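Bit of a strange request maybe. I'm writing a small parser for structure token strings and I need a real example to test against, not something I typed by hand. Could someone generate the tokens for this chain?
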Amino acid sequence: MNIKECLLCDENNYPVDTATIGSLIASSGQKHLWNERACGAGGIDTVVVHYMSATAVSPGDPYNFTRLLKIFCDYGVSSHYLINRDGEVYRLVPEEMKAWHAGPSIMPVPDDRTGVNEFSIGIELAATESSGFADAQYEALGGLCVDIEKRYHKKMTRVGHDMVAGERAVALGLRKEPKVDPGPLFDWPRLIRLIG
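Reply from user aminoacidic:
Good idea to test on real output. This should exercise your parser:
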């Protein structure tokens, strides 16, 4: 699988406006937008699907890769992968590290583990609440999930951000606002078929 590297760390010279990803991260006092996993890479058993867009800052070009990267830097969040509308896959955080993608979260019943970042891989799809997802994104996501499962020699639990950080997480007092991504337009049966 073709995965492009664009790590969210202070050594990344990818240009963003008049700065670089690296300088934006360094200016926040960070070296990178991840930390160590207490469970180690062997504890990874879940994939969390998200969507993101730059609609608020770039309404005419909501999928602009540079704008999406800047959002991670501006908000101090991260995900392991970002898949653009053409199906290009970018690695933003090494899988063995804990990305900051799910926030306060709890797995669905009966699992009920909290702190989903600790044992999951986060995958962002460039999309909006109403755009749906491109065929190329489904193909890339399916391929990435197969690749992850082969490398870890296990079937991963696959959940949406809304399933671990939605209304239930709010009701339990874990967070103030529910997450809604990837939402009702995401075709879970299609992803399951692609994974096989």
